[in-house]
């Protein structure tokens, strides 16, 4: 098969790779119908995730069809159309029993495109298939459903739910990339009084506004704007969706006393927590890897057309255009890329085009 293989920091290629095979009775082999590129993949290529060994097929998001299952798989069978979760859970360990699948201690958690070969390929082996695959109706387009592999569960669980967004809150989302935009969509489910989107890129701020942000600001404008909107108190909830030290530190300055800061961004280096300024403000700061415990709920909402997923897809490609898609996604400030979707050309629900 062909796959996008990580060959060390700064190096990857769409090349021949070994076809995956069932290695455990709980495995399933899925033929990839659509996949996408995540900011985490860029972090891996930058060398920020050193435990990813060279030779690993990247990617942790996909929609596809089951072609083979191990003897212990009961929930899906060959021919089924499925959503592949970015998180694999054994279903038996202490954390899985608490629905904290991201912390699975029995070989699960975030493993696709991290500790084992991932989804940016023609085929992928999915461990713990009964817990990691979700049956997908034929009526749901692959380009929409693939956004529920990672970004929507991540934004919803790690941003909105951990931030405890409540009716009437002022919510600030720092970073209007795919995760930040999904957080804006998710926050609206809880009726906040206002949502402020912060990003240096005008095109992303416009996307945030289209998704329901009530106010937009560049990083330089954000702190005075939030102070003005809240009478100087600060935001009830601030969601960090960038993963840079300066954005995290700005978030700590914009949250009100007793407020909540939910860090979603993937940090490749240390950030300073100024406890000398923050300890007496009763702040709650949360971090987290997604558990994907909300995937079934979000999938039902998608099926019922209650999630604005289509607005996040800006570019579509064929699988064989993986390297071009990475280039477009990595230069988002120039190309305006939010989510890029890659799929096979014969699938009608993907309107394949390439960016100029």
UniProtKB/TrEMBL annotation:
Domain Enoyl reductase (ER): 10-342
PROSITE patterns in alphabetical order: ADH_ZINC
A Pfam short name: ADH_N
Keyword Oxidoreductase found: yes
Keywords: Metal-binding, Oxidoreductase, Zinc
Alphabetized InterPro entries for the sequence: ADH-like_C, ADH-like_N, ADH_Zn_CS, ER, GroES-like_sf, NAD(P)-bd_dom_sf
Single GO MF descriptor: zinc ion binding
Positions of the UniProt region annotated as Disordered: 1-20
Obligatory cofactor(s): Zn(2+)
Entries under PANTHER family matching the protein: NADP-DEPENDENT ISOPROPANOL DEHYDROGENASE, ZINC-TYPE ALCOHOL DEHYDROGENASE-LIKE
Similarity-based family: Belongs to the zinc-containing alcohol dehydrogenase family.
Protein name: Alcohol dehydrogenase
Species assigned in the record: Actinacidiphila rubida
């Amino acid at each position: 098969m062909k796959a996008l293989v990580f060959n060390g920091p700064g190096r990857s290629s769409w090349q021949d790779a070994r076809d995956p095979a069932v290695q455990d009775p709980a495995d399933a082999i899925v033929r990839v119908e659509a996949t996408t590129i995540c900011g985490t993949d860029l972090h891996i290529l930058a060398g920020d995730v050193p435990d990813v060994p060279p030779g690993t097929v990247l990617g942790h998001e996909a929609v596809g069809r089951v072609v083979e299952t191990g003897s212990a798989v009961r929930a899906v069978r060959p021919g089924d159309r499925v959503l592949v979760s970015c998180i694999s859970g054994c279903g038996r360990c202490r954390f899985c029993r608490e629905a904290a699948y991201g912390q699975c201690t029995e070989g699960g958690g975030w493993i696709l495109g991290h500790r084992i070969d991932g989804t940016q390929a023609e085929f992928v082996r999915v461990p713990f298939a009964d817990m990691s695959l979700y049956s997908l109706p034929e009526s749901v387009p692959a380009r929409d459903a693939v956004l529920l592999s990672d970004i929507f569960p991540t934004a919803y669980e790690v941003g909105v739910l951990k931030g405890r967004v409540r009716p009437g809150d002022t919510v600030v989302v720092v970073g209007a990339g795919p995760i930040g935009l999904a957080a804006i969509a998710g926050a609206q489910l809880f009726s906040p009084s206002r949502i402020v989107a912060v990003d240096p890129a005008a095109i992303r701020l416009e996307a945030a506004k289209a998704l329901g942000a009530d106010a937009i600001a560049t990083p330089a404008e954000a702190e005075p704007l939030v102070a003005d909107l809240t009478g100087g108190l600060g935001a009830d909830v601030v969601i960090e969706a960038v993963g840079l030290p300066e954005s995290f530190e700005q978030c700590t300055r914009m949250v009100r006393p007793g407020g909540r800061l939910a860090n979603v961004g993937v940090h490749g280096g240390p950030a300073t927590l100024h406890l000398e300024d923050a300890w007496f403000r009763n702040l709650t700061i949360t971090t987290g890897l997604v558990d994907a415990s909300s995937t079934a709920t979000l999938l039902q909402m998608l099926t019922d057309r209650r999630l604005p997923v289509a607005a996040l897809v800006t570019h579509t490609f064929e699988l064989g255009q993986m390297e071009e898609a990475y280039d477009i996604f990595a230069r988002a400030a120039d190309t305006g890329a939010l989510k890029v979707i890659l799929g096979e050309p014969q699938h009608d629900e993907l309107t394949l085009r390439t960016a100029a």
